[in-house]
Specification:
The chain has 345 residues and is α+β, with helices and mostly antiparallel strands. The chain has 10 helices and 15 strands. InterPro entries: AmpC-like, Beta-lactam-related, Beta-lactam/transpept-like.
Length: 345
């Protein structure tokens, strides 16, 4: 365990990462480690319950919610989106499956402008924007959208999925996620916030507010507006609670076997060795190693949640800095925890 702690400490002290919190969970081990600070300004150390913005790890939860509704007979993955979300610029052949697989043809709203500013920049301002406006902005600028198009990662897809969840259940997406997952699994620090808030774990970013350029200044961010990323990336959690959820998912406790199989029906994205299923990605770590999960990045935070089928183990790393090299840190931890153990055996 000290070897893993050394990896975290090196990232903080030698690579100037503000703070890292990680969890590893398997049938036989449970490791919780942290390094650095929740705030570079106050130097406050982490507690195990400190919540991070987890960005696009949210997509795993939203996709699982859709599949859970399918298991309950309340929707079909090949059902038309227009059955639930009525917008003149959405293609009549667009299905829920297209959204989950990022093959909708819809462009990503996140970098598009609203009143002269990129929508993503409103994520650190107290400025509510409804999901319908986000969809309208993207749909109007995707005039040649064609469902079943080549893979194109677009946050717009998961905003629409959030609206579908609310239309079917007549509840907020936040309440649905609580009812399906966070309450049954007793995830007390995991939620999809309904309103702007301040987190005790501050974000730190050297990027411009629209995330397009890196600067020499590292800003500290405490204010958080969930209406911009919403069901595409607004959840907050801890690494251990993300791990608990992911381990339960992969152990077959949350979905019917057929739905979990569909969630993991991976196909190439055109981005190196990465594949994508339904709200889940498959990453190649080493020559013979694949991991399943998702990565996330949002102003001031980076995240990565991974399940390793060969080891039946989950690893989640949350960093309160952007950029923070979370992928490299994860590879070093995997190598230390698992490849070294193989060599010794």
């Amino acid at each position: 365990m000290q070897d893993v702690q050394d990896i975290l400490d090196e990232a903080v002290h030698l690579k100037n990462v503000t703070g890292i919190s990680m969890s590893m969970r398997s049938d036989t081990e449970h490791i919780l480690l942290q390094s650095g600070y929740s705030s570079a300004r106050t130097k406050r150390p982490f507690s195990l319950n400190d919540r991070f913005q987890v960005g696009s790890l949210t997509k795993m939860f939203v996709a699982a919610s859709i599949l859970k509704l399918k298991d309950e007979g309340r929707l079909d993955l090949d059902q038309k989106v227009l059955d639930f979300v009525h917008h003149p610029n959405l293609h009549p052949n667009l299905t829920i499956r297209h959204l989950l697989k990022h093959r909708s043809g819809l462009k990503d709203y996140i970098s598009m402008k609203h009143e002269g500013k990129a929508l993503v920049s409103y994520g650190i301002q107290d400025y509510y924007l409804p999901p319908a406006l986000l969809i309208k902005t993207a749909a109007e600028r995707s005039p040649n959208q064609e469902p079943g198009a080549p893979f194109n990662y677009s946050n717009t897809n998961f905003i629409i999925l959030g609206m579908i969840i609310e239309e079917i259940t007549r509840q907020s997406a936040s309440d649905v996620l609580d009812a399906l997952f966070t309450h049954p699994l007793e995830l007390k620090n995991t939620s999809l916030p309904k309103q702007a808030m301040r987190l005790s774990t501050h974000g730190h970013s050297s990027l411009t507010d629209d995330l397009t350029e890196e600067t020499r200044e590292r800003k500290e961010l405490s204010f958080y507006n969930p209406s911009i990323p919403w069901t595409a990336g607004a959840m907050v959690s801890t690494p251990d609670e993300i791990n608990k959820w992911l381990f339960s998912l992969m152990s077959g406790e949350l979905l019917e076997d057929e739905s979990l199989k569909e969630m993991m029906s991976f196909s190439y994205t055109g981005e190196g060795t990465e594949k994508y299923g339904l709200g889940l990605a498959q990453f190649q770590f080493y020559d013979e190693t694949n991991a399943v999960g998702h990565r996330g990045g949002i102003q001031g935070y980076e995240s990565l949640a991974l399940y390793f089928p060969n080891e039946h183990a989950c690893l989640t790393i949350l960093i309160n800095q952007m950029p923070g090299s979370v992928g490299l840190i994860a590879k070093n931890i995997y190598k230390t925890l698992f490849l070294k153990n193989e060599a010794q055996s």
